[in-house]
Amino acid sequence: MHLSIEPDACVGSGQCALAVPEIFDQDDEDGTVVLLDEQPPQDLHEAVHEAAGLCPVQAILVAAADDTAR
Ligand code: SF4
Residues in the chain with pLDDT < 70? Predict the structure, then answer.
């Protein structure tokens, strides 16, 4: 799994940070999403998918595999 975010799309609702605080945080100043780990461990994949589904603006992008350079 490879995660990316679109901070410009984020409206700071905080759904992701509430759902998976190990992976998502919010900026202290404007509340936009901060990605803590682009490659979440296996045991968080399901929760990350759920968080992506909760995001009201689809600012969380989940790719099944990381085929970019590490
Ligand atoms: S759920 Fe979406 S809009 Fe809300 S803070 Fe997370 S990325 Fe931003």
Answer: 66-70
Residue among 9, 54, 60 at smallest CA distance from 36: 60
What's residue 64's pLDDT?
83
Which pLDDT belongs to residue 30? 94
The residue whose C-alpha atom lies closest to atom 8 belonging to ligand 1 is 10
- Which residue bears the tokens 């350079």? 69
Looking from the CA of residue 11, the nearest atom of ligand 1 is 3
Domains of the chain and CATH, by start: 2-63 (3.30.70.20)
Ligand 1 environment, Cβ below 6 A: 10-16, 24, 26, 33, 54-57, 59-60
